[in-house]
Design goal:
- By secondary structure, this protein is of the alpha/beta class.
- It has 2 domains: 167 residues, Rossmann fold (3-Layer(aba) Sandwich); 321 residues, no CATH class.
- It has 15 helices and 19 strands.
- The strands form 4 sheets. The chain has a 6-stranded antiparallel barrel. A 5-stranded parallel β-sheet has the order 2-1-3-4-5, with helices on both faces.
- α6 runs antiparallel to α12 and α6 crosses α14.
- The longest helix is centred in the middle third of the chain and has 21 residues.
- The model has no long low-confidence stretch (mean pLDDT 95).
- Manganese (II) ion binds next to loops.
Length: 502
């Protein structure tokens, strides 16, 4: 896996069109020709990162059942877009929709943007019936409880293309999560509650599998690392980062940089050969590792791996899912922890971790430094030190409530720290949570959100809301519109709703 690799390669979204035989073959030919034009427009749009493939004009119960069966069985198909060009009596959709296991988008569009006032006749009216055909489809999907995204508007509008594009990224990421493998090096750290959870429930809900390993499994991979590869990687470090003098070629601590490179190569080999796209470690169980992996973990995150510190497999899996979703978008995405507060000027949060913040969010070229670590009982670890870019971002937490999952999202604004923080030896980002410090922090704590999060400047709440919707889990968002009383009421009403649907 590498940051250059497009995770959506090979994925397809199937475009199907609902109609019926009432209008005769000529109309169906026209429906087909119009649909091909719509699909071409969507597929060629730069917003849609997943290929959109025209699949079929569906006019009978059997055709719909067959197409949906094929979509369910296809590893390439990550979602279905359905458009009702004409009226499509929806009883014929019941059998197909009842087995649908892929995410659905109902595109409520119509072929022509404007009514041709001079020419319009009943033939035109019979051909262009999306306005009521889409309502029939909406009715059956609603009463069957089919999860779907509804996009309304002419298919050439940039807002419509953007909405389809966002959904395509989310369903591509869901497909990646369904086959994701997470490796845990060591177990949970120090009896922490929030980093634990039920891996069986998580696999049932999200599909990802979590595998536990002893550290000897990893250190065995380090032994196979060749010195020439270590030297090549150290060269890459010197090109990509501002490496401090003591770590550089002639420096008195250069051996520590080589050790970090050896750990990175060993971890990469382990993860690649096992097909893992996310992982955890813990400073409490490092086996024969000479350093807590700082720089190696930071670079693996930058290449698209999900990571959770201290055994936090939920955050690791969520992070990989969001790395896929945001692939190619500006802003980066990192593992994060709310570390310490500044109560001045309305309050802000300094986010950081012991070492493991992803350099994709860095404002400037990261510095590569070595400093002591007070915990972990190993040699000083090498790490990248930088400040996160100012601008809008999200903090996202996946909470295991014991009997269901909750996605918790806070919109924040990252700001430049007032001063330099010269003695802080780790990467950091300072933010102001929305709507304000007191409301956001109170709401987060009332919702049981973790201190570990995925920090996502590259995404907006729209992505997370669609993700939760498509997965059938709760999404609580703390943003500029949040009031504490309404948020607490949402928690109560959601509790009833999710008890009734599960
Ligand atoms: Mn932590």
């Amino acid at each position: 896996m590498h940051s250059d690799k497009n995770p959506f390669t090979g994925q397809e979204i199937w475009f199907v069109v609902g109609s019926q035989h009432l209008y005769g073959d000529e109309v169906l030919k026209q429906v087909r020709s119009d649909a091909l034009k719509v699909v071409d427009h969507l597929d060629l749009s730069s917003e849609c990162i997943v290929r959109i493939i025209f699949k079929a004009i569906l006019t009978s119960s059997q055709e719909i059942l067959n197409t949906i069966s094929q979509a369910n069985a296809s590893p390439q198909c990550v979602g279905i877009i359905a458009w009702m060009h004409t009226f499509s009596p929806a009883k014929m959709w019941i059998n197909g929709l009842s087995i649908l296991s892929k995410p659905l988008l109902h595109l409520h569009t119509q072929f022509h943007r404007e009514i041709p006032w001079e020419e319009i006749d009943m033939d035109y009216m019979n051909l262009h019936q999306s306005a009521h055909g889409g309502r029939e489809f909406g009715h059956i999907t609603t009463i069957m409880g089919v999860k779907r995204k509804v996009v309304v508007g002419h298919y050439t509008e940039s807002r419509v293309l953007r909405e389809i594009g966002v959904w395509s990224r989310v369903v591509g990421a869901i497909a990646a999560m369904r086959t994701m493998k997470v490796a845990r090096f060591g177990d949970n750290m120090r009896s922490v509650a929030v980093t634990e959870g039920n891996k069986v429930s998580a696999q049932r809900q999200f599909g990802f599998e979590v595998y536990g390993y002893g550290l000897q499994d990893l250190t065995a991979c380090l032994e196979g690392v060749e010195d020439s590869n270590v030297i090549r990687l150290v060269d890459e470090y010197q090109e990509q980062y501002q490496v401090t003098k003591d770590l550089a070629w002639e420096g008195n601590r250069h051996h520590a940089l080589k050790e970090a490179a050896r750990i990175e190569l060993g971890m990469r080999f382990f993860l690649e050969s096992g097909g893992f796209s996310a992982f955890t470690d813990t400073f409490e169980n490092l086996g024969d590792l000479k350093q807590l992996p700082g720089l190696p973990v930071q670079r693996l995150m930058a290449d698209g791996y999900g990571f959770g510190a201290e055994g936090d497999w939920k955050t690791a899996a969520l992070m990989r899912c969001l790395k896929v979703m945001s692939w190619g978008l500006p802003g980066g995405l990192s593992f994060m922890e709310d570390y310490t507060y500044d109560f001045n000027q309305g309050g802000s949060v300094l986010g950081a971790h012991m070492l493991e913040i992803c350099p994709s969010i860095a404002e400037d070229k990261p510095r590569c430094e070595i400093h002591p670590l007070g915990i972990g009982n190993r040699s000083d670890p090498v790490r990248l030190v930088f400040t996160g870019t100012a601008g809008p971002a999200l903090n996202v937490s996946l909470v295991d409530l014991g009997y269901r999952f909750r996605l918790l999202v806070n919109e924040v604004d990252a700001i430049a720290p007032e001063q330099d923080l010269p003695k802080l030896p780790v990467a950091r980002v300072l933010w102001k949570p929305k709507p304000d410090f007191k409301t956001a922090v109170s709401a987060w704590i009332l919702a049981g959100g973790a201190h570990h999060t995925v920090y996502a400047p590259s995404l907006t709440q729209e992505y997370l809301e669609i993700l939760a919707d498509m997965m059938g889990i709760e999404c609580l968002t703390i943003n500029a519109d949040t009031t504490l009383s309404r948020f607490q009421q949402d928690i109560r009403t959601n509790e009833v709703y999710f008890k009734s649907v599960h």
